[in-house]
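Write out this protein's structure.
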Amino acid sequence: MKRWRFPLFGLLLALMTGGGVFHLTAARQEQALRLSASQRSALIAETLRVAIERFRAVPDLAAHAGEITGLLEAPGEAALRLANEFLERAARNTALSALYVLNAKGLALAASNWREPASFVGHDYAFRPYFTETIEKGSGRYFGVGVTTGVPGYFLASAIRKGTETLGVTVAKIDFAPLEASWASAGEQVAVLDADGVVFLTSHPAWRYRPLRAIPALRIAAVEGERRYADVKLGPSILTEDADSGLVLAEPVPGTPWTLVLLAADDLARRQAFDAAAMATLGVIVLLLLGLISRMHVARLLADRAARQVLEARVIERTGALRIALEQVEAEVAERARIDVELHKTRDGLVQAAKLAAMGQAFAGLAHEVNQPLTALRTYLASTRALLEQGDAARASGNITVMAGAVDRLAGLTDDLKRLARRSDDRREVVDVSAVAGEILRLLKFRLGDSGVTATLDALAPVPVLAVPGRLEQVIMTLLLNAIDAVREAPECLIRVEVSVREGRADLAVIDAGPGVEGGQVGRLFEPFFTTKEVGQGLGLGLAIAYSIIVDHGGALAYERLDGQTCFRASLPLAAGKTA
């Protein structure tokens, strides 16, 4: 037993040291992870609240519109058409999924989707909780799956009253699909629970309409009986099957009975704790080995004095080597941890900078586009005033016609900017590539002029494709901005945009007289964060994003070098049943 006492004691000490270091490091890492996850969950909850509040006043405003009250007070074909067109226009301008009107019995009289096959008009929604709540209290809120369209949404309702009499109810339906897509693209594990603990919004589609944790059968039956989620049967609880191990943080969504849950994986924290524990255990073992070697050394000294000097030299040499190795390992672990933290910070900063840079490049020169018609308006106003004082009504009328044209030009520019800036709802529609290319070139007119670049459009119109308009605009703008940068220092500052149909597919080519890319860099053009521009001139995100958009639409984006010119060619399927 005396022989094994020292090794057993050393093993126990190493295990205790490693365990202590593991628990201490794990606690610190978990605290940091919890703080970060709490901040993210609070931000996501606030984003959801803002997404609801921006539409809160729409049903009440619609309830006071003359077209709606006129339909309820004096029904007829003319009143119905006016109400339908008003709701259709209001839903489109506010980016609502749907806007409709129910009479006092819950029957849908008019709706923004009155032209569509799945129109709400004629359907009875008296069973919906938002209707009964609005009839009783004047307003109501409710999330559920549409029984007519099968599309989930959040319903905001407001009563239409005349004195003490309730004439009907206006209802606005909000689509949260873009919000869920943003969570998924950010890599977050997010779920929003209703008052019964059932997930109805999430970044993981497999979690939808399932309780986070097991709930009583009576509550499940009540949710399904209410048809809150149409005819969907609630699935098994999430945390027992699909959720990754880690922290689960809950955050109430202000103004709603909902709870936002964020699942934060703690794999990295555990790995760092294990690494620290392994290093501590290794250090103790090294020290114990040194002690054992020293003990053997002393025993050997007693046996042979001559051998003692040799053993001392060997122990000193081995001790120094072990110490240096230990220091190197510790320094490498610390440096890698520091580099990992800096990498994450730098990556976040680069993504944000890319967004700001793209906005600045795309709208350079916008002030010129606005200032020119404004200056002309001032001049013509002064001239018209003088002509009216002189009694020259004919020339004054001509000036007014010119001013009206300038106003129309400003209105057209405003419409273009509103459409380009409007957030994409990821719904695809038939888009004319030629028309989109022309609009982008018009918006970049002053950017081209400031850079001394001439751009031409050779387009076969129409060239229809099935695409998300905002995404297609982003691709064309990215290719044109890159082409402008490429030809700025070229002998010929020329850019040519060609839109045609090749081999049964829509073909968009952006050709410039720039120097092109070196052969060894072509294969990396569409990699994130790869750029051939000078430092500070680009982040390498534009082409990567454009490539992913084109591929997502079933197309291809390629780089070509033709007759000394650079060409980026995007190929997309033509819209079904459409030919150029």
